[in-house]
Structures are given as C-alpha cells and as structure tokens.
Amino acid sequence: MVDEQNAGGKPTANGYIRPGVDDRPDLDKALSAEDKENIARLTAPMPKRRAAERSVDDEQTQGVKLATDSQVHGSGMAALAAVDTAVPDEASAFMDMRDPMVSADGHRPTKAEIVRLGIGFTVSAVACAIPWVALSTVILPRVFEQIDAGSKVFMLGLVNSIGAFVALVANIVFGTLSDQTRSRFGKRTPWIVVGGLITGLSIGAIAFTRSEALIVTLWCLAQMGYNMMLAPYVAVMSDRVPDKVRGTISGFYGAGIAVGQTLGSVVGAAFLTHGASGIFQAWMMGLAIFSLVGVFVVVVWPREKSSRFEADGEAMSAKAILRNFRPPRHAPDFYYALVGRTLMMGGYWMITTYQLYIAQDYIYAGDPHAIDKAAAIIATMGVITLVVSLIAAVTAGPITDRIGRRKLPVALASCLFAVGAAMPLLFRSPMGMYLFAAIAGLGYGVYNAIDQALNVAVLPNPKEAGKDLGILNLANTLSTVIGTMMTSIVVSIAKSAMHAPGTPAAAYAWVFVVAIAVVLIAAALIMRIRNVK
Asked: What is the Cα–Cα distance from 335 to 506, expressed in whole angstroms?
C-alpha cells in the first residue's frame, strides 16, 4: 500500500519512482537566487490542463497512468495534480513569458538608460570604424605599395589572412572568457577597456617601422586586441538591451558602423594626400581613438552590475572553459546566420579592401595621375555612401521592430548590394563607382541595421551569449580572409591567364563578378532560417 502523504512529490512506498513527478529537481537548489527573483516577477498564472488533453507520448502522462493503474486510493488524483502544477521552466516557456521591456539579465532599463545604451553603441561604432577602415583599406595598402609595389596585393592578402585567423581565435576565446568572468566591474567591462588599449598601442607602433614582418606582427596583435574588445561589447546587446527595442538599438549601431566605415574611406583618402606625414598621422589617430574608446563606452553605458556573485553552472577551470568553446549543437538557424553573414561580408571586403587598387588599376588604368585621382574618387564615394547608408540604417531598425521581421530585410539588403556591385561592370568610369557607392551603400546600410538583431534572435542559449555571439562575429574575421584571399586569387589567375607583368584591368572586372555571386549565395542562406521571420 502507498501512503497518500507520499504522493505528489516523493517516491511511493513500493519504491516506484514516477517519471517526471518523483524525480523532478528541487527548484530551491537548481535555481540561483537571481533566477528565483526573475521567475517570481515574470511568471504568469498558467491554466491547469487535464490529462486527457496531453499527448500520450508525454512521459509525465505515462507516469500518471501507471500510478492510476496501481489502483491505489488517491494516488491517481494526487499525481495528476502534481503533473499539472505550473512549474516555470527557464529552458522552454520562461523565455516566452519574459517581459519584452526586460533585458536578459532581468533588469528593466529606464528610458534614460536605453538612450545611454543607444548612444554608447552608436558613437563607439563610428569611432572604431573610422580608423579601422582608414588604416586597413587605404593607409596599409599604400604602405605596402611604398615598400614593394610588386608584392603589394600578396602582402595585403597575407596580413589580412593571418590577422583574421588571430581575430577568429580571439573572438571565441575572449567571448567565452567574458561569459565566465566574475569581477565587481562586471563580466564585459574589463575586456572592453583592456582590448581597446592593446589595439591602440599596437596600431601606434606600426608608424615607427618599415619592416613587413613587423607590420604583420603588430597588425595581428591589433586584431587580437580589437576582438578582445569586440566580443564582449557585442554580447552586451544580448545581455542588457530588451527585446522590444533591440531592433532600434541595432539600427543605430548599424548606422554607426556604416557612417564610420564611410568616413574611414574619406579620412584615409585625406591622410593619403599629405604623403608620409599624413600616413604617420593616420597611425597616431588609430592609437588615440582605440586607446580611449573602451573607456568611453563603459562610462556612457549604465554601469554594469557586479558579476562576482553570479551563479556558475560549474566551477571555473581549464576544462570548463575549453568545454565552453564548443559551438552550439542542433541550431541550424545559428549556422545559416553565421555562414550567410560570412559570405555577405566576404563579398563586401572583396571590393572595399582593394578599392584603392581598383580605382588606380581599373578605373584610371594607364593614367599617370592615377594615385591622386583614386584618392579623390574614394573620398567622393565615401560621401555618397555616408548619406545613403545613414538614412538606411536609421530607418531600417525601427521599421523592422514595427513589422516584426528580420530575415527578409537582411536578404533583400544583400541582393541590393549585389545590384550595386554590378554598376562598375556596366560603367567602367567614376560614375560606375559612384553608383556602386549609392546602391551598394544603401543595401549595406540596411544590412548592418538589422543583421545584429537577427544574430541575437538566433542565439540558442542567452546565458552563453558572449560565446555564441563571439562565434557569430567570426563572420567579421572570416569574411576578411575570404574577401582578401578571393580577390588575390582572382587577380593572380587573371594575371597568369593574360601573361601580364602587372595587374590587368580585366582582373578587377572578375572581382566584381565573383563578389556578386558570393553575396547572392549569402541571401539564399539567410532565407533558410526558419525560426525568425
């Protein structure tokens, strides 16, 4: 016989353990104090469901049936009551019950705090993009050209490939470490500040050397510092920005990137016109901005709460950290987003990284004043891209928040970029490049405004946002490798096929063709995401 007092939560007298009832975990021990507080505030009453309405495949239902079949008085009703009690489950219904104006860390930010988050993301995006693009796409290519014009394409591809590999590893490592960091300053803040300092000092040191090997080493160190800062920085979007306004914040963040990258081309071209002194000043600009931007953003944002007493899934150890490097499993949407962004940005960097050489050797091929004219055309393209991408980025985020869609706008933005990339093929002239800047810039602005919100939406586990967003941000580094290597390969094949000592203009025409194909594949992959509209 069974003691009725043991039903509904304890093993029966005959030792039988009812699946889903008696072996249910003790929530007082399984949940941290913070989890309990959040559940108490966020859960809503759930209607009781009758056993007849549940699937016969449900293990809890089977447990009830077995208990009922035992013909013990009261055990069936007691078990049924235990099964249908509404228990908050963080792994399933919990996220659906969360208030959309409450961030993943359980805090409801005020309007002022949301504004501060938006300002921090936007201003820092602009501040980082300006020197990074100016140095990587204008100044660094010119430095390699000055050292050895014959190997400039190879050296640019080499430094970007090695640097991207370093950045790839750094993104995963520091994203994971930031998830595990426990300090009174929070888990993201220390990495953002230190990463900015390392980036700035590494970039500043390049100004004092002409050694290609040392330049490659310092640039890789800068890549490491930049991703040490970037991985936890982007994770803040998941940690502290509520779902309801994430599209808008992502839009302003994307606008900052678009504006900064555009201004980076303009600023880089302006430094280039001042010769050696301008190049030195460009490196010093990178030193100053990156050294200060990490401090700036953590001051502008609401202070991150201490993570010293945040619950850990397991004790901090080398084994636990290495286990956290494991990519998420059974998450196809996550990988569609990862590969889609990688290819889209790969097509972008195929053109952008080599825009100085494209203007010199494709648009102004054979012109004795090609370098000066190339700088002028890059500056004009920058202004055009600035206007269209700013408009697109500022408007696209709020619109997608209103319509509740992320996937389709991202795919359409990729297609729009492909249309823009076709313009220099149809019009081999400055006008073709200006049309590219306008149309592709519009698509890129929309893309940047929405893609980060899409990335957050496909995260399989918000508690591992730093790690998983670090993996998604591999697209930023892998795309640099793909873009520079593919352009370098296309140019090399064209030179070999045409037996040309220099770079033939036709080689860059094929660069545009390949970039268009890569971007369209990216759009198709984004459309395969199933759980995000």
From this structure: 35
CA–CA distance, 517 with 392 (Å, rounded to integer): 23
Alpha helices (H) in 211-310, listed in sequence order: 212-240, 243-272, 275-300
Sign of the torsion angle spanned by Cα atoms 229, 233, 235, 236: positive
The string of pLDDT tens digits covering residues 4-47 is 444 445 555 566 666 666 666 666 666 777 777 666 666 555 54
What is the C-alpha to C-alpha distance for residues 169 and 503, in angstroms, rounded to an integer?
A: 33
Cα 109 to chain centroid distance, Å, stands at 23
Is 274:281 a contact under the CB 8 Å cutoff?
yes
Which helix (H) or strand (E) element contains residue 82? helix 75-84
Q: How many domains does the chain have?
A: 2
Contacts of 77 (CB under 8 A, 6+ apart): none
Q: Which of 514, 522, 513, 519 is nearest to 426 (CA)?
A: 513
pTM across the whole model: 0.61
Residue 125 forms part of a structural domain: yes
Question: Are 122 and 210 contained in the same domain?
Answer: yes
Domain residues for 415? 327-532
Is 14 within the bounds of a domain?
no
